[in-house]
Structure to design on (54 residues):
């Protein structure tokens, strides 16, 4: 059973670090960043620890 980090909620099921039946991340920590010069809303931020399945 992979580690479920209940401090990091996540619904990105396409990520290899997602806990499948549970909407949590399995990593101990994640890196958050932005692709914008001046982020102004949640859509401007990204999980930089994302890794696509397969
Ligand atoms: S690495 Fe980021 S996108 Fe992937 S499961 Fe963890 S929080 Fe979600």
């Amino acid at each position: 059973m992979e580690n479920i980090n209940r401090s990091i909620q996540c619904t990105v099921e396409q990520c290899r670090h997602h806990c499948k039946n549970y909407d949590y991340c399995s990593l101990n920590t994640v890196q958050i960043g932005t692709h914008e010069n001046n982020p102004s809303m949640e859509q401007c931020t990204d999980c930089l620890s994302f890794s696509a399945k397969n």
Q: What stands out?
A: Residues 12 and 21 are 11 Å apart (CA to CA).
